[in-house]
Each structure stands twice: as structure tokens, then as C-alpha cells.
Amino acid sequence: MKLKAKSDRVIITNAEFATRPKCLDSRHRPIIDNLYNILMVKISVSKARERLSEVVEIAQTEPVELELYGRRAAVVISPSQYDEMLEALEESHDVTAFDIALAEEENNIPWEQVKRDLGWL
Q: Which intervals of the chain form a coiled coil (predicted)?
């Protein structure tokens, strides 16, 4: 893919979807990079409309940011990346709820007692 940088945005040229640069081999990338990609293809909504199938294809390996009048309008990501992000968000909410529950000063039941009550011991 032939990309040209223009200020803080990446402008995709006419050969936009011809090839795909491999900057990092996915085997060497930490799992967290799947949630926070550094590289992102940016394309205008009108160009994306013309080449939707190619945008969807690229979104399988990295997010594609759609711009409308030079501003972020949407991001296209793969279903698997969406699922990972949703799972991470749910985990974050669970951790927050757990921390709030631990901070409460009410009658907390010790973990060992809970395990005994459930028959785990």
C-alpha cells in the first residue's frame, strides 16, 4: 500500500490497496497491540464508499479510520478485534465492580467461608 503522510493524517494514494506493508510480524507483537494498534489506515468516507469491499478486507488485519470533512467519522474493525475489545471492556467493568465491592465497609464474607458454603472445600 502506498501511503503519503500529510501532517498528522495518512493520505492513501490511488494505489491504496495494491499491497500491504508488514511493519510488525504478528507473532512478535504483544496481545495488547491487538487492542491498541499504532498503525491505522485512514480514508475518506467517499473513497471508502467506492471501495467498501477492500476496506472490509483491510479491516480484517487492522482498523480503518473513516474521515468525513477531515474529521474522524467511524472506525471499521474485524469482528474478532471487536469481540476482543468488548471482552476487555467487560473485564474492566468487572474489575471496577470488584474494587467497589471490596471498598464497602459492610459485612463482607471471607473467601474461605464462601468456598465452604458452596461445598468447594
A: none
pLDDT at res. 28: 34
Cα–Cα dist 74/38, whole Å:
17
**What whole-number distance in Å separates Cα of residue 80 and Cα of residue 71?**
26
What is the per-residue DSSP string for 39-95? --EEEEHHHHHHTHHHHHHHHTTS-EEEEETTEEEEEE--HHHHHHHHHHHHHHHHH
pLDDT, tens digit, for every residue of 28-60? Answer: 334 444 445 456 889 999 999 999 999 999 999
Q: What pLDDT score was predicted for residue 109?
A: 83
Q: Give CA–CA dist 25/113, Å, rounded.
A: 48
46 part of a folded domain: yes
Instruction: Please indicate, yes or no, if residue 66 is contained in any of the structural domains.
Output: yes
